[in-house]
Amino acid sequence: MSTGSSVRGGGPATDFDVSMMRRALELASRGRPSPNPHVGCVIVRDGAVIATGYHAQAGKAHAEVDALRKLDMRAEGATVYVTLEPCNHQGRTGPCSEALIRAGVKRVVVGCEDRIPGHGLGITRLREAGIEVQWGVLQEKAEAMVADFYKHALQGLPYVTLKAAITLDGRMATRTGDSRWITGKAARTHAHRLRDRSDAIMIGARTLIADDPALTVRHIRGRDPTRVILDSALLTPPSARVFDPASSAPVWIFHAAEADVERRRALRERGAVLFETPRAERGLDLDSVLRELARQNIVRLLVEGGPTLHGSLLAQGMVDYAAIFVAPRILGDAGARPLADAGVRRSMAEALTLKSPVTRRFGDDLLIEGALVDPRADAPPTQ
To answer: What would the pLDDT profile of 31-81 be if each residue is shown by its tens digit?
Structure first.
């Protein structure tokens, strides 16, 4: 049965094609492959799944090879579903296109093309070898899966997710700075899943001093992200919880050139890696920070800051995705701390918007998440 979904070559996708691609996408999300893309693979013969795989980590087998190894690299007559176009170049691993050809597969269904210069032509190579190829099945979802990879590879910047918990009136802390706890345990547990899926987590010095967070993954089994602190004057105390030896995740502190030499020494003794960074109008130059993070192979960056950091990132168009937990609470205090201070937008038409937002419930709290769109970024210049 056809779903009517448009694909490139071979006619419309069937319901079975779509269901297998959904499974491949779920597999892709399991990996931690930065700076490589998240890719999942399902191999089917005679309507039954015979192997699955995903790219677990950079330097390890790509998704197609991970699945083929479970079949001793032979899959005669099978159909392969893969979320991203198979690679056709030699990197730390060999070309997946050649592995599929040698395995004897009959058909390959691809979620989206690989747009990185020098990475493509996998589809072309497979067709040259006589393999039927379709691509574009669940294309939008497949492209969203590798949006972080594309941004890092094409722009030299990490994919930035802004995460926050707010009340119904949009406040993330009282005027005294108290925010424990806006949301319930179920929402907080999911927030730690977001940390586990990120390469790094970033906050500002004000948040660190006010909350003294560990910035680790708790409540679930997971991997601690690199902890990134923006601290112009190096006010971070050496006794801060981020230096707890229970976590081996690095602590990186970005600071201004005039930061005190003795503070630098004390923080280095605690294990911090320091990055001297140019200043901007509202603190450190965030473009310099993000580009340095990208050079350090930070692809997925989670921001859990306060109104100033959130506002600066939003005002400069540096946020790609937002994950906002909303609790059924009202502070009713105009002096309480808002989600962000990003400057003036004079009409609702200028409001930042989540594209195709997804809403999920965690206990009494709601999570609203989606890619962030700034209408002013694409607006024509005024005359």
So the answer is: 999 999 999 999 999 999 999 999 999 989 999 999 999 999 999 999 999
- Which positions ≥6 away from 176 have C-beta within 8 Å? none
Share of the chain above pLDDT 70, in %: 94
Q: Does pTM surpass 0.70?
A: yes
Strands annotated E in the chain: 40-45, 48-54, 79-84, 107-112, 132-135, 159-166, 171-173, 200-204, 226-230, 251-255, 273-276, 279-280, 283-284, 300-303, 321-326, 337-338, 353-362, 365-373
Which two structure tokens, joined as six digits, stand for 28?
Answer: 């892709």
Q: Give the separation between CA 374 and CA 360, rounded to whole angstroms.
A: 23
What is the average pLDDT across 179-196? 94
- Residue 154 above 60 pLDDT? yes
pLDDT at 383: 37
CA dist 147 → 37, 152, 155, 346, 349 (Å): 9, 9, 11, 31, 26
Is 64 considered catalytic here? yes
Neighbours of 274 (CB within 10 A): 18
Of 64, 85, 113, 369, which one is the catalytic site residue?
64
From residue 316, give the alpha-carbon distance in Å to each of 172, 281, 288, 300, 347. Answer: 21, 12, 13, 18, 18
376's tokens: 């002013």
